[in-house]
Amino acid sequence: QPCTRFIYLSLLVQCYLIILYPFNLTSEGWQYFKGSWYLDSTTEQSWNESRKFCQEKGADLIIINSIQEQGFARKFHGYRWIGLSDLEQQGVWRWVDGSLLNTSFWYPGEPNNMGSEHCGVLYFSDTLDNWNDYSCSKKCYCICEK
Domain 34-145 adopts which CATH fold? Predict the structure, then answer.
């Protein structure tokens, strides 16, 4: 009967992951949207500190791939770090996974690199296009995604 016990335990673990994993995430403040989980931070930190915060939670800074995801991200108020920077090469914007920026939602006139701004931030505004390039050392909230 060891094989039967193994199958039973395997099914039990799968059920636990399916049923309780989302519950644990939502109880920790994570929000589900179209296949990913999102967490908004409650502490303002630099871009690098924010990225580390997300990574410690098994996530990374948000990568915005669609107009729907941009609409979802806009609901978080205040300046929020996103997983976008041109730290490797000035003017070449990449996401934290290394992919190049394809779809963008820059606020008109951005990015402008005013005062050495190399990290992407979104801020609450009435417009869909609300990204800004910002100094990476500034303290902002962030959105994590996993």
Answer: Mannose-Binding Protein A; Chain A (3.10.100)
